[in-house]
Design goal:
The protein is of the alpha/beta class. The chain is built from 7 helices and 15 strands. It has helices at 12-22, 37-46, 63-67, 86-91, 104-116, 176-182, 228-240; strands at 3-8, 28-34, 51-54, 75-80, 96-99, 133-137, 142-146, 150-156, 159-164, 169-172, 188-192, 195-198, 202-209, 212-217, 224-226. The chain has a 5-stranded parallel beta sheet, sandwiched between helices. The protein has a 5-stranded antiparallel beta sheet with strand order 10-9-8-12-11, with helices on both faces. The chain is elongated and about 75 Å long.
Length: 241
């Protein structure tokens, strides 16, 4: 099925970059480009548009302002350099939220969501890559987080706590086995039943005794206590690197 797409971005190089990536997707027909919200609204009124590749921060008006001018509203893939608008993107049922610069594999996954009829999934099951971003949600907020900013994940039964580089924590209904299947193997290491570590954020290991150690990580003042299994795996991993 061919879908007619409109690229909306005030930066011509960003529009050209997206055009080049879309050459690999003949199912997407580029119906036009717009550098302003007013121009985009006019193009949508003149011709049927199935999909918007939409920047958010633009001169005079935002990408969200365009949506109030359209009826019906096409499927939306936000393309932006700003992660702080993720919650609003979720609220308007966007298909995806791509961070600039857009990479081919990330665009591929967004277009697969178009084909499947799905939207932004807070906890999808797809395999994650080192340059991906992930939506994390708790009772208070929804946040878009680059995978590289995940420092450590600890778990108890079916829940897990995700620790970020800025010290923030997210309690997620997802067990550690599910995280292990999704996270990039070269970046993350499973230490025991309750800890997955992003080895890029390991600062120091202090040995307490033969079976116990303290692990210091980015963004957290207090160390994480490692038991016998976790300490042994960490020692083996450090010996290999």
């Amino acid at each position: 099925m061919t879908r007619r797409a409109l690229i909306v971005d005030d930066e011509a190089p960003a529009r050209a970059h997206l055009r080049r990536l879309l050459v690999a997707h003949p199912e997407i027909e580029i119906a036009g480009e717009a550098g302003t919200i007013g121009e985009a609204a006019d193009l949508c009124r003149k011709r049927p548009i199935d999909l918007l590749f939409l920047d958010i921060q633009m001169p005079q008006a935002s990408g969200f302002d365009l949506l109030t001018k359209l009826d019906p509203v096409p499927r939306i893939i936000f393309v932006t350099a700003h992660e702080e608008f993720a919650l609003r993107a979720f609220e308007v049922s966007a298909v995806d939220y791509l961070m600039k610069p857009v990479f081919p594999d990330r665009l591929d996954r967004a277009l697969k969501r178009i084909a499947s009829g799905s939207g932004i999934d807070v906890c999808p099951d797809e395999k994650l890559h080192t340059d991906d971003t992930l939506f994390l949600q708790n009772d208070r907020t929804l946040r878009m987080v680059p995978i590289r900013q995940i420092v450590c994940i600890t778990a108890e039964r079916n829940y897990s706590t995700v620790f970020l580089t800025d010290g923030k924590e997210f309690l997620i209904y997802r067990n550690l086995n599910q995280w292990e299947q999704r996270l990039p193997k070269g970046m993350f290491i499973r230490l025991d039943r309750s800890i997955i570590l992003n080895q890029q954020h390991l600062l120091e290991i202090k040995i307490v005794d033969r079976d116990t150690g303290k692990m210091f990580i980015t963004g957290r003042q207090e160390p994480i206590l490692l038991g016998r299994t976790a300490l042994a795996r960490m020692r083996a991993h450090l010996a290999e690197t």
